Amino acid sequence: MSTQDGIQSNDHAPGRASRQTSRQTSPQTSPQDVIGVGVAFSVAGLYFMLGAAGYLPMPESNSPAFIAFCAGAAFLFAGLTFIVRARTGMLNIESDVPGSAPRWTQVSYRVLAIGIAGALATIGTYLAIGSGPRAFNLSAPLIEMQTAGETIGRTVFGLGAVIVWIYVIALTVGTVRKLFDRGG
């Protein structure tokens, strides 16, 4: 048996294939670092939400306040998601809370994900069908092009919003099924 980074493996055992764990190939981020990023995202999101509500100064913008509020909500929820990840001890490669984690962490992780996607879908929906003129630019390396009109931009944001709303619905249905599944 050999030990690397405190993890034991049977690399030299006869008849066994060498196994590499995720911790050997990429170092695990410390929970304190994950919480720090979560707090930073949460504070930034809270600032935009309070600014949109008129409690804090915000830079001038041509968009309605609820767009800044939705962007702030997405950042706040993302930050809280980082904190939940750190509290459950999730590995970098894990995308869902382990089944052995407390129920509140499983529920909050999924509800926060729905909130993030819903906030982003709301922004995309407003850009696609909200009132008022829109100006869209398309840029790539060495090329910058003003579109001929709003139609292309609104269509692209509309398609994106539809895709994200479908994701929100699928995530919500999957969450309800997973949380209320009595069979396992």
Characterization of the model:
It is a single chain. The chain has 184 residues and is mainly alpha-helical. The chain has one domain. The chain is built from five helices and four strands. The strands form two sheets. It has a two-stranded antiparallel ribbon. A two-stranded antiparallel ribbon has the order 3-4. Strand 1 and strand 2 form a beta hairpin. The longest helix has 30 residues. The chain is globular. The N terminus is likely disordered.
Strand proportion, as a percent range, falls in 5-15%
First-to-last CA distance: 36 Å
> If helices are DSSP runs of H or I spanning 4 or more residues, what is the number of helices?
5
Task: Tell me the helix content.
Answer: 55-70%
For the residues shown, what is the average pLDDT?
83
Contiguous runs where pLDDT drops below 50 for at least 5 residues: 1-23
How many domains, in number, for the residues?
1
Strand order of the largest sheet: 1-2
Structural class given helices, strands, pairing?
Answer: mainly alpha
- Largest β sheet strand count, sense and barrel closure: 2 strands, antiparallel
Q: Report the C-alpha radius of gyration, rounded.
A: 22 Å
How would you sum up the global shape?
globular
Listing every helix as H and every strand as E from the N terminus to the C terminus, the arrangement reads EEHHHHEEH
How many E strands? Answer: 4
